[in-house]
TrEMBL record:
This is Glycogen debranching enzyme GlgX. Pfam families: Alpha-amylase, CBM_48. The keyword Zinc does not apply. The keyword Nucleotide-binding does not apply. Signal peptide: none annotated. GO terms for biological process: glycogen catabolic process. InterPro entries: GH (IPR017853), GH13_cat_dom (IPR006047), GlgX_Isoamylase_N_E_set (IPR044505), Glyco_hydro_13_N (IPR004193), Glyco_hydro_b (IPR013780), Glycogen_debranch_GlgX (IPR011837), Ig-like_fold (IPR013783), Ig_E-set (IPR014756). It comes from Pseudoalteromonas aurantia. Keywords: Glycosidase, Hydrolase. SUPFAM superfamilies: (Trans)glycosidases, E set domains, Glycosyl hydrolase domain.
Amino acid sequence: MLNSCRGCHTQLGSTKKDTGVNFAVFSPNATQVYLCLFDASGHSQIAMIDMFLHEGGTWSVLVEPLKEGALYGYRVEGDYDPQSGRLFNINKLLMDPYGRDFFGEFTWSERHFCHMPVGTISKLDNAIDMPKSKVTGLAKYTEKRPNHPWSKTVIYECHVKGATYKHPDVNPEFRGKFLGLADPAFISHIKKLGITTLELLPVHAFVSEQFLTTKGLRNYWGYNTLNFFTPHKPYLVDNDVSEFQRMMATLHEVGVEVILDVVFNHTAEAGIDGPTLSLKGLNNSGYYRHLPEEPNVYINDTGCGNTLNIDDPKTLQLVLDSLRYWVEVMGVDGFRFDLATILARTSYGFNAHHAFIIAILQDPVLNKAKLIAEPWDIGPGGYQLGAFLSPWREWNDKYRDTVRRFWRQDEGVLPELAKRVHGSNDIFEHNQRGPLNSINFITSHDGYTLADWVSYENKHNLANGEVNRDGHDENYSFNCGKEGFSTDIGIVNLRLKMQKNALVTLLLSKGVPMIAAGTEFSHSQGGNNNAYCQDNRTNWLAWKPSQQDHPLSYFIQELLTLRKTFSVFQHGFYVHSDDSRFSVCWLDENGQLMSESDWHSEGRKWLLYSIQDQQLKQALLIIFNAHDVNLEATLPCAPFSEHWQLALSSCDCAKYDSANPICTISAQSSWVFTSLKEGNIHG
């Protein structure tokens, strides 16, 4: 027989106690909240227990005896008045927003909707189609973390399933799972490349939107969160959430960090016509942003139907509590915040000193984590690249677009290209930040792969079922002479060389480099630049034996070894003319300093520059020639050795005669020369 008492309201969620389990949930405008307990099958409700109201709107109850593994949900009584933003409906079983685990699968049905039609309360009970929250209590993560400084961080953005699902050397049981990322075969691959940090696409429990499931598709990327504390269950082998901790411990042991892509801008509950699953049924008007004069209208700065209201103290607490849980208990090293501008927007617009930003800076746990912002959204004033405060890093889409445009042979790009490869001081230096605040990337999960960037000039998204209207129209891409797959050896070789050009630019730019998974063996999505709903071979990496010996894999290894050797890439400040240690010289094809007219010559499609470290006696000379004709370049004198040494080139037939100062730089190629005082290797 179960006994219940008032319990404690200060720790939200379910908490195991000596004699039972304490439950606490926030629902300030409810007239009554009930804890509903279910049998082990999750099908039968075995108890419905009144919870006790505390000041501030939190409800709690302590149930004895009750053990870890108990299944539960909440039902809430209160006003049903959509016009005032209140959607209480006792017929809807709600998941615990703080639930650390759940049992069962989510199934779409009309029973999830609070109103049928809008304005009319639904009497249908949804419990049969809802996962049940599950009492669980993991111990805190105690393993040693790598703690790579940003100056030595190299990010590999990947999808948990797609990264290993087709990997023949990964344990078949672990493929496409968290434990697959901890498999020796996958670890060996990323370590061999030189990767320090995995950035995982969303791993919070998520569901596929109903408009996708009706078309036989599913949300593959995961940007449709159901719960902020529970790992996505299909990524588990034995349905045990501790597997995530096991993955973290194994990766940390070999020196690999993990950053999570987190979605705190919206949830799977969508807008007024969406389902009622958790937050909407507990405190709709507090957890979500609405028009002040129309509480029934959701502000949709995400394009997904709703926007979390981080201005609300309890919503802010929910986000911070989730972040701390993933660091302290699950062991992660940092976060990439999807549509991060939304998290710092008030009714007056974006605010770099928003309570969310300040709270993280003051939090003793979170201010030590790696923090990356995607600094844009579709709301008013939504583009905020460079506006976040230290220690935040930001995805630099201007870097992406500028590099793409240069290698596409767009005119007038040189001045901006120089800024981007030098760390984008025009974007970050104004608020005392440095080049390492820029996350440099050319491709990511969103858009073309690197192989598709040089293979398609038009998007090919018909498989998404939106008549090719979804995805970006301007990708700054080119197809090297033929749209799509080609067996023409000339086109194949040019595409490989252009991918190498992009990688030289990326990995030898100041900033923190990020590589999208599959770049190292020319993974293609068939021209789909919005493959969010393709849970198939479009996204799954094709791990053929030949892929692991792909020339791009070796090329990335060479580049990252070179990057590690030269101190300038670990230097956290911009290099200016008065720097006593570092210098940057922008050169013309005659080895002389560029003139003002050189910078603005629209026909100039090449860039030469040298970087020197006077203290360590190191120098790099980098030449990018995007033109479709060869460039006769006179190399300047090598500063720390008798001659420049050719370190690498995107051109397989690259030759350099050190006795001749004039070097023929092949069309559409990149060249890197080094000059080192003997023995001066930085690492």
